[in-house]
Amino acid sequence: MMHLFRKHVIAFSAAVLVTSAGLTACGSDDAAATHNDTDGLFISAMAMHHERAIEVGQLAANKGSDARVRDFGRLIVSQQSPELKALRGWSSEVPAPPNVDMGMPDGYVTDAELARLRGETGVTFDRDVLLASASSETGAAAMAQRELASGIYDPARTLATSIATAPTTQIPKLHELAAQLPG
């Protein structure tokens, strides 16, 4: 799984670098630009990431054996649903750049991981859904950092700023909760 994760991190990073290099080569004559390819990549990848996070959140809310896991699932759904709506709205104004294969977003919970979670129950499910969510948040924070480094679309940068704090806020809480579970 780690190999697959690294592969997708490398693919997404390469797409950002290629896009950034293309923007540099084009010059900066367009002072009125409101977005760039980094923004389009971020919006597209983050929408895909949010769709899966909401799916995992719904699973946690419905299957969690611990009330804190169910609460976490409901929180993810309630926070990320309006963000996903915004991302979808922005995607019409700021499309992903053409001819860039970005692969899966950083930290994306794969279909295989989701299927495994669906088959688990009890404390095993609770712990695994929390740890999968922590990994997902780590990936989202990495994407947010790239947006903040190179993106110029203000709404995306605002969202990226809030997501970038996950390593110091939400991720430690997820690990702590997973460690508190019995077994």
Give a nutshell description of this structure.
This protein has 183 residues and is an all-alpha fold. 75% of the residues lie in helices and 0% in strands.
Summary tags:
183 residues; mainly alpha; Ferritin
Helix and strand topology:
Blueprint: H1 2-26, H2 37-63, H3 67-93, H4 111-119, H5 122-150, H6 154-163, H7 170-180
Helix pairs in contact: 2-3, 2-5, 4-5, 5-6, 5-7
Walk me through this protein's architecture.
- Pfam families: DUF305.
- It comes from Williamsia phyllosphaerae.
- Keywords: Signal.
- The protein has a single domain (2-12, 35-180), classed as Ferritin, CATH 1.20.1260.
- It is mostly helical.
- The protein has helices at residues 2-26, 37-63, 67-93, 111-119, 122-150, 154-163, 170-180.
- The chain is elongated.
- The chain has 7 helices and no strands.
